[in-house]
Amino acid sequence: MRALEKWFEPTVIVGMLSAIILLVFADVVARFAFSTSIAVANELARFCFVYMIYFGVSYAIRERRHMRVTVLLDMMPAMARRWVFALSELIFLIYSVVVCWLGVVITQKAFGWGKILSSTEWPLGFLYMAIVFSGALSSLRLLQSLWRTLVDGDTRLGPQTDI
Question: Using an 8 Å Cβ cutoff, are 82 and 155 in contact?
Fold first, then answer.
């Protein structure tokens, strides 16, 4: 379980990036060598790119590498820093839960519209499911961060070393 927790996002991100590189390379070779295009290559590459970016969000949260302004946090004493850090993580958690919920709503609507992607003929909802996955995984990662902050007092920014 620890290996899954540690390597899930990086594996998905690297897999998606590898797929993008292979798909775009194959399409370029097909265009220049055979004067044709691989119809699904661009669409699948875009699909992989969207999922890679959204999984990157949760990975950045896990590693505490997401964007934040820490000037005031750095000037605070340790106890105040802990509570302000926890408050900021809680606000981000609420935001992630809302994003996940709205992702569910948008995904349901997209499946209801019956629109499909042109080359793969997949329902458009599969593309929007990236929002749901990202919101849920980000919420989980923020809960872990809140736990580390409140229980262990860990307010370090940057990668965690205990996993």
Answer: yes
> In this structure, are residues 132 and 103 in contact, taking their beta carbons and an 8 Å threshold?
yes
- Angle at 107 (CA atoms; ends 101, 111), nearest 5 degrees: 150
> Residue 134 and residue 148: Cα distance in Å, rounded?
21
What distance lies between CA 84 and its chain's CA centroid?
25
HSE-up (13 A, CA, CB side) for residue 108: 6
Q: Which two three-digit tokens encode residue 139?
A: 């919420």
Closest of 155, 146, 147, 57 to residue 93, by C-alpha: 146
* Distance (Å, whole) CA 112 – CA 90: 33
Q: Per residue of the chain (163 residues), give pLDDT as tens.
A: 677 778 888 999 999 999 999 999 999 999 999 988 898 999 999 999 999 999 999 999 888 777 776 777 778 887 888 888 889 889 999 999 999 999 999 999 999 998 998 888 999 999 999 999 999 999 999 999 899 888 887 777 766 555 4
| pTM for the model | 0.82
